Amino acid sequence: KALPAAHTSLAGRIVTISAGGTREALDPVRFLGNRSSGKQGAALAAAALAAGATVRFLAAHMDVQPPAGVELVRVESALDLREAALKAAVDSDVVIMAAAVADFRPAEVSDTKIKKVDGEDAPLVRLVRNPDILHELVERRNAQGSQQLIVGFAAETGDAQGDVLEHATAKLKRKGCDLLVVNQVGIGRVFGQDDNSVVILSGHGAEPQSAAGSKADVAAAVVDRVGAELTRVFP
Ligand code: CTP
Ligand code: CA
After folding, report:
1. Would you name the residues annotated as active-site residues?
2. Does the interface predicted TM-score (ipTM) exceed 0.85?
3. Is the pLDDT of residue 80 over 90?
4. Rounded distance between C-alpha atoms, residue 164 and residue 189, angstroms
């Protein structure tokens, strides 16, 4: 349900939003990537701008253009995004991590193009873990005791260990963020699509809230909720 305008306005707020999918280099011409289109992140940025916020937009690879009017920072890898996010977060009132961050990157990046050699085995790619940017943002915020609202996104499919909401609730606890926007993914579902359906989980005990429709509709619902949480969590 629509909230009164006084509670939804982000006027005077600095909102950092990450979007798109990171690319993890293998060599100068190749990378490991993911299917994130950046559409939901771009819609969030547009909604935050419409609500009066100053928007810092940290764009990993996207299939769409970032909206005009954001402070744009282009990033490639998870390590690039980490640096940009920690910097942008310093004076942000809100940080929304909508980017699909690679969990792993190649352990070695070749300075030169990897060539195939007749008679030799195909190379093995060893991967190492990337830092958890969202978790790090929460730890910094908590250490500083600052009044910053941190929002995560979760892509879940559900599996033998639990359904989408069980996984998401565990993730919310692990990450320690204030809100977690959860969507159910699968091949051809959500990624790259124009519609979305999400559940917004609260780290402060509020009931889960559903939002569905175009990515613009979902973005508007998330931005409304962020506005409401700012006044509720940090009155
Ligand atoms: N995220 C992040 N840094 C990472 C991985 C994810 O900041 N290295 C953020 C994403 O931007 C998102 C949230 O964490 O806001 C959840 O991402 P998700 O991939 O669902 O969570 P993971 O902790 O990586 O768990 P999983 O093993 O299910 O992928
Ligand atoms: Ca992940």
Report:
1. 34
2. yes
3. yes
4. 14
